[in-house]
Each structure stands twice: as structure tokens, then as C-alpha cells.
Amino acid sequence: MNGTRLSPATLLAGAFLLATALSGCVQPTIDQVRFARTGPLGDQSVVILSRKHKTQGETENDFISCVSDHVAAGDDSLSVLAERQFVDSVFPWFEPRTAPLTMDKLGEVIAEPLVGDRIRDIGVRYLVWIEGTTERTDQAGTVQCTVFTGGMPACFGFLSWEDASNYEASIWDVSEGIAVGKVTSEAVGTSFIPAVVVPIPFIARVQPEACTNLSDQIKSFLGDGSEA
Amino acid sequence: MPVRVWSVAGVAAFRGAGFAPALCIATAGVALLAALGGCVGGASVTVNTTVPSPLVDPIPVKMAVYFDDTLTSYVHVEEVPDHGEYRIDLGASQVPVFERVFDAMFQDVTRLGGKAPENDNAAPFLDALRSSGANVDAVLAPTIEEMQFAIPAQTKGDFYEVWIKYRMKLFATDGTLIADWDLLGYGKANSDNYGSVGTEDDALGDATIWALRDAAAFLSFYFPTVDGVREWLEGRGLGA
Description:
The complex is a heterodimer of chains A (about 230) and B (about 240). Chain A has about 230 residues and is α/β, with parallel strands linked by helices. Chain A is built from six helices and six strands, in the order H-E-E-H-E-H-H-H-E-E-E-H. Chain B has about 240 residues and is α/β, with parallel strands linked by helices. Chain B has a five-stranded mixed beta sheet with strand order 6-3-7-8-9, sandwiched between helices. Chains A and B meet through helix 1, helix 5, strand 4, strand 5 and strand 6 of A and strand 1, helix 1, strand 9 and helix 6 of B. Strand 4 of chain A pairs antiparallel with strand 1 of chain B, so a sheet runs across the interface.
């Protein structure tokens, strides 16, 4: 029967289309704690920063970029200054081994006239310190693929894995010298690939989900500052 | 009849969105590694960078800075068992980094260059200072005493790490040693932030840049508090 045999390229293309169309389940959890009111941002901006003083568990650069991009996008967008631009502007006060770890230390840093003036000059109102990572927490199974004579590939088996994201954002008001709140975003998702000739992946987009949720929560927190 | 078989027991290659592209890349990678017979690894990094101008109050002194040729041509070469040769060329960054830092730290800076001293206690800059005719209060001479690095395979962690140990010497213009101290710079780069192609060079290069920034940060912060320097500054009426 002509037309019933699929070429390897067709099978791969089909698997790729399925991969983009299907996704595994992600269970997100978000939470926030407000310590103080937040004022209107006006023409000032927010900096999204990662903590770099630890030797393990450093937040991924692409997660910081993702949050920065999301916070700066949409109808409720906030003005965001890039992390590198900020740390270069105030060098050497926010380097991995010199950045203030507590609000008291931040108070001492911004009390330095050179630093306080520079932060005011570049128009930064809020520092959002992000800590956390996405880790693989479990994985199991195997997929075995073969190529038959004639170039026909086929895969058999089952793969699954679980990823967990856990991020916390501490929000500091530089102009007031106070911590105004914390926002957390957790997400857990299981991805799996059943393969009977053609592997069909169900990918749980755990980190992107955590990024979107944390970003939306930061925008909501800073955009709706009336709740004390 | 199957002619080739491969299996995927792990899932590290499938963190992205598509299984098919990942499978193709993984297969190609395995084939390439097999073709190379395991002869991969090592890195060669040339670091050519500077740092931002430090935000510190300049100290009102006229300082000469002596960059000897061992500093400006410094290259660290190390063989890591089972991972090949690693070569990190730091020399080109030394003058741009230190000039940026010293220009911010001191009211007036004169740059001197020349050969390294034949023994540790010599003041190597005297000829250069004399021929420059510069009127300065003291001379700073940085040298790299030691450099180390670690790759994730060695530490079983996620980070490429770099340590640079400088030896800083402050001389009076007659060659008398005023103070000498170690300045340590530490930098790391998370391997998770790099793709699979060119990882070693990029990550090691970035870790080295962070180590240079760290050394620059600590030098600009803590220079006035170093033993010997503090007394020298106090003697000039510049104590904290």
C-alpha cells in the first residue's frame, strides 16, 4: 500500500510537533507577605537581582532574565533596570562578596553619599533579591531506540522525571531603607515520554511557570501597595 | 533487522521543549565523542576585560603604579588529570583593571612599567621612576603570586571557580617598603548558565572576570585599612 510508510523525517517532525503541543502538569504555589506599604513607582525603576554569595544553589541567570522580562512586559509593566547595569553603576558595593545581606547593611550602604546619590541618579526605587533554584527531584525509566535497515527508526519504553522550583523574592525599598515584603513561588511538575515506535513527550514547564507566577506576583505587590 | 541501538536512561538532555531535537543532538554528541576517542577537554581562555570605575572617595595622594612584565604577561597553565590542559591568559587585563581602580582610588596616578625584580625585596621601579621624572608620594607594585581554578568535575558541584592571589607592595619613593599584603580575588560561574558548546572556555572566562572584579572591589574598599598603609596615611594626616 502506497502512502502508509512514514519516513524518518516525518516521524521526527511528528514527534516534535507533539512535543510542542503537549505538556505535563505543573502545580504552582504562590504566597506573599507584606511588611509595609509600597508607594507609586512614578518614573523610578525596579532591579531584579540574584544572590551570588553562596557556593551552591545560585539562582539561574535565565530565571533572573525571565523575571526581569516579565515584570517589564504587559499592561501592568514596571520599569526594570538590568541587573548588570545596576551592579556596574554601584561597583563595588553590590558584588557577590560585598552586597548587603540585611536591611541594616543596606541602610549603611545607601547612607554612603556616593552610593545614595548614584542610586538616586539612576532612579532605582526597589531592589528585588531572588533566591532559589529549579532542581530535578526524581527520574525513572528508559527509552530505547533502534534504526532498522532502510533507515526506519523506532523507540520503545517510558521515561519520567519530576522538577521542582522554589524561589523567594525579597523586596527592599531603597528610598525608605526598609524591607517591604516577600513573595514566594513554588512549582512542581512531572514530565514523561511514553514511546511506542514514536516517542510522545509531555514536558512540564516548571521553571517558566514559576517565573510567570513570581513575576505576576511582584507586579501585583508593587502595583497594589495600599495593603499594609 | 535492527542495525543500531541506543538507549536513554537519563533525561538530562530533555529539559528543553522538544524530544526529537534533543535526541538528535544527543546522538550526534555521542557519535562525536566516540569518533574523538575521548580526546576532549581542557580550555584556553584569554581574559581581556576591565572593571567599572569604583564608587569610592579618592585618597588625596600622588601614587605611581609599577606594572612589571611578569604581571602584564601572566598566563596560568595547568594539566587537570583526565580533563586535559587548561590555559588562562590573564596578562592583558591587569593594566586595564588596576588603572581603572587606581584612577578612582587616588587623586593622581602615574603609570610605570619595566622588568620584574630579581629578588622579592628589591624596589624594581627606581629606574623607571627616575626616568619618568614624576613627583609622587609612593609607589604601588602589584604582582600575581598564585592562581588556582576548579572545574565542576573536580568539586562535584555546579561551579567553575577561580582564585587569584595578588601580592601588593607599597614603597616609598626611595625604595623603602612601607607595606605588603595579599589580595585575594574569587570568582565563580554556574555551569547551569552555559550551553553544551564552548562551556569550559566561557564559564572559566566568566569566573576569571568575577575574580578580577572581586579583587578590584576589595582593593578599593580596604586599601586604607591595610596594616602599614593605615599608619602611612595617618602620618600624612589622612587617617580615617
